């Protein structure tokens, strides 16, 4: 085992020496243009209710959900709230920032098919995936990353 580790280390060193420096760009050159920098603290975020929903709060951090382009949106969902089966036409990545968020697949809400995603979890939904969701007993705050415009198509 020691011989293998020494051999691997030697090979890595030889490769690095052969490759030479990977870049001559200085950190000051990379950070010279910060016109697109965005920094928000919680006090900067203006949470608002979703017009057509029950007690869900939302804040858009990046983009506009009604227009094309990158989006980062957060949602606060009340305890035990169920979200009916639906799909989206865009890829969506979900990060659980607080509480528990549950996800199931299909055209009918079935509590037995919910998978739990606790604090810190992440999942990615492909476009068109028919799914349903539910907040845990303490509610949930989730962050969704996608591209606009956002879509929400209820399963009929």
Describe what you observe in this structure.
The chain is mainly beta and 156 residues long. It is 14% helix and 42% strand. Strands 1, 2, 3, 4, 5, 6, 7, 8 and 9 form a nine-stranded antiparallel β-sheet that branches. A hairpin with a 6-residue loop joins β2 (57-62) and β3 (69-77). It is globular and about 50 Å long. The chain starts with a helix and ends with a strand. The model is unreliable at 5-9 and 11-20 (pLDDT under 50).
Approximate helicity band: 10-25%
Oligomeric status: single chain
The beta-strand count equals 9
The total count of helices amounts to 2
Terminal CA distance reads 60 Å
- Rg of Cα set: 22 Å
The chain-level mean pLDDT equals 86
Strand residues, percent: 35-45%
What order do the helices and strands follow? HHEEEEEEEEE
Structural topology:
Blueprint: H1 2-19, H2 27-30, E1 48-49, E2 57-62, E3 69-77, E4 82-87, E5 92-105, E6 115-118, E7 122-125, E8 131-148, E9 153-154
Antiparallel strand pairs: 1-2, 2-3, 3-8, 4-8, 4-9, 5-6, 5-7, 5-8
Top keywords for this entry?
9-stranded antiparallel beta sheet; 9 strands; mainly beta; 156 residues
Concise synopsis of the structure shown:
The chain has helices spanning 2-19, 27-30; strands at residues 48-49, 57-62, 69-77, 82-87, 92-105, 115-118, 122-125, 131-148, 153-154.
């Amino acid at each position: 085992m020691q011989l293998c580790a020494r051999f691997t280390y030697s090979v890595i060193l030889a490769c690095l020496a052969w490759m030479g420096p990977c870049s001559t760009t200085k950190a000051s050159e990379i950070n010279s243009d910060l016109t697109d920098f965005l920094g928000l603290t919680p006090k900067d975020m203006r949470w608002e209710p979703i017009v057509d929903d029950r007690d869900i709060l939302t804040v858009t951090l990046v983009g506009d959900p009604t227009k094309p382009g990158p989006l980062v949106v957060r949602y606060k969902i009340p305890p035990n709230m169920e979200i009916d089966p639906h799909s989206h036409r865009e890829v969506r990545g979900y990060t659980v920032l607080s509480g528990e968020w549950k996800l199931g697949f299909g055209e009918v809400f079935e509590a037995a098919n919910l998978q739990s995603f606790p604090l810190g979890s992440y999942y990615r939904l492909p476009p068109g995936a028919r799914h349903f969701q539910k907040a845990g007993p303490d509610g949930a705050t989730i962050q969704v990353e996608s591209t606009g415009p956002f879509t929400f198509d209820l399963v009929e």
